[in-house]
Design brief:
By secondary structure, this protein is mainly beta. The protein has a domain at 1-41. The protein has one helix spanning 62-66, and strands at residues 7-9, 16-18, 37-38, 89-94, 97-102. The strands form 2 sheets. Strands 2-1-3 form a 3-stranded antiparallel beta sheet, with no helix packed on it. Strands 4-5 form a two-stranded antiparallel sheet. The longest helix has 5 residues, at 62-66. The chain is elongated and about 85 Å long. The N and C termini lie far apart (84 Å). Residues 51-60 have a biased composition (Pro residues).
């Protein structure tokens, strides 16, 4: 016996219920002599075929993981005037991280 009780479908509203003889959705009562309609527990197969998944890309080799792209392979990005290399923005690689240096700003207000 299922400890949660039978799962049944209401004949009035087709709502799925658990235990009891009164529908929790519409309040219709199933007479004592009438058997409870069992709820469908299986999924009907789809009439359309599922789409084929995309092919899995090949695993990269260790050499490919260690190489960095050359500057020609990196696409240029439109820069903001404040973060332009020509206006004093500079990144210097250092042990433990990078130092980002913002050059002096023009103070002509």
């Amino acid at each position: 016996m299922n400890p949660l009780g039978p799962v049944w479908r209401c004949r009035v509203c087709e709502g799925v219920n658990r235990n009891g003889r009164v529908c929790t959705t519409c309040g219709a009562e199933v007479p004592v002599g009438e058997p409870l309609r069992a709820a469908v527990r299986t999924v009907k197969p789809s009439s359309t075929r599922p789409a084929t998944p995309p092919p899995v890309p090949p695993n990269p080799t260790r050499r490919e993981l260690r190489t960095y792209p050359v500057p020609e392979e990196i696409y240029p990005v439109d820069s903001d005037d404040r973060l332009d290399f020509d206006s004093g923005f500079e990144i210097r690689p250092m042990p433990g991280g990078c130092l980002i240096n913002l050059g002096p700003r023009d103070r002509s207000f």
